[in-house]
């Protein structure tokens, strides 16, 4: 639960289209909703931010306290966040900047809001700078869906696109690593936070999609199409196989800075192969049936009408 003060800020923000008075009069705020690292529950926090060109930057200042704020620990566990900015609401992936980029962005933050520099002098920890990235969407993903088949295609295109994005980032990392390492070089350092956050966001979206299918779509369809029992059994088993690989990836990424790059690369290749086969089979098996169902779903059908 937000503190009483934060709750009052949240309520005023939403009631006044993103504007807040009192000590925040004239300042830009946003509402960041994260998923609890331990609880899995949603938490909304009002935060100041800095614009840097097209980027939205947050700082895990915690007012100079010795510990990172709770919302920062949440985004390391679940990078996908909901952002309320003015009257707009959108999803983003929270990616902490690293190394030289973090230092450069922090300089820009302090130039815009000097108070963050004061917070840094009050603590020995390095204040993290977080970039809120809008998820990349493939250009060929349709914006509208007229049927449940269209919606499934949208989701599958998004998943394929995000997986390709993570794979491309990973291969670029290995190419850069090879270019700077010679014979007798030390073991590769951990994966960058950018790859880690993008992969965790992909895994969260994939888990939500498959859990929803297992809990809702598949049982309903199986009840109306008993002739496809073997198909749904196969799809459920494929979900379990993908979930096992997802668990291996999550275990590798649990250590923020110690992920073993070569093992991650191998598990990512397994995920690519397994998920691609699954999505191809699911589309071939279910899209013809789903094309008959409208999206969004309409009200329940009356007696005597055909049900799916």
Automatic annotation (TrEMBL):
Q: State a GO cellular component annotated for this protein.
A: plasma membrane
NCBIfam families the record matches:
hi_GC_TIGR00026
Q: Which reaction does it catalyse?
A: oxidized coenzyme F420-(gamma-L-Glu)(n) + a quinol + H(+) = reduced coenzyme F420-(gamma-L-Glu)(n) + a quinone
Chain ranges of the Hemerythrin-like domain:
150-290
Q: Which GO MF terms are attached to this record?
A: coenzyme F420 binding; oxidoreductase activity
User: Which PANTHER family does the UniProt record give?
Assistant: F420H(2)-DEPENDENT QUINONE REDUCTASE RV1261C
Specify the taxonomic lineage.
Answer: Bacteria, Bacillati, Actinomycetota, Actinomycetes, Kitasatosporales
Q: Name one Pfam family in it.
A: Hemerythrin
> What is the designated name of this protein?
Nitroreductase family deazaflavin-dependent oxidoreductase
């Amino acid at each position: 639960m937000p503190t009483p003060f934060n709750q009052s800020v949240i309520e005023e923000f939403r009631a006044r289209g993103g504007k807040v008075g009192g000590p925040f009069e004239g300042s830009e705020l946003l509402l960041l909703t994260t998923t609890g690292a331990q609880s899995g529950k949603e938490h909304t926090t009002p935060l100041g931010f800095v614009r840097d060109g097209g980027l939205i930057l947050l700082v895990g200042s915690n007012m100079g306290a010795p510990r990172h704020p709770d919302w920062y620990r949440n985004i390391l566990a679940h990078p996908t966040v909901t952002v309320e900015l003015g009257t707009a609401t959108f999803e983003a992936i929270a990616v902490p900047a690293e190394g030289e980029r973090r230092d450069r962005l922090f300089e820009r933050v302090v130039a815009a809001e000097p108070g963050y520099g004061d917070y840094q002098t009050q603590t020995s920890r390095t204040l993290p700078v977080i970039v809120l990235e809008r998820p990349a969407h493939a250009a060929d993903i349709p914006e509208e869906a007229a049927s449940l088949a269209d919606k499934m295609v949208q989701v599958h295109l998004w998943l394929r696109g995000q997986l390709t994005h993570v794979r491309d980032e990973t291969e670029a990392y290995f190419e850069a690593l090879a270019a700077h390492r010679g014979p007798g070089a030390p073991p590769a350092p951990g994966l960058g936070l950018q790859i880690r956050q993008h992969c965790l966001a992909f895994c969260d979206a994939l888990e939500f999609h498959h859990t929803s299918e297992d809990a809702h779509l598949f049982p309903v369809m199986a009840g109306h199409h008993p002739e496809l029992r073997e198909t749904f059994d196969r799809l459920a088993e494929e979900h379990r196989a993908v979930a096992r690989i997802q668990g291996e990836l999550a275990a590798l990424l649990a250590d923020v800075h110690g992920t073993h790059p070569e093992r991650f690369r191998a598990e990512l290749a397994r995920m690519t192969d397994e998920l691609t086969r699954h999505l191809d089979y699911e589309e071939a098996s279910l899209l013809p049936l789903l094309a008959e169902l409208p999206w969004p779903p309409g009200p329940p059908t009356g007696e005597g009408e055909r049900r799916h």
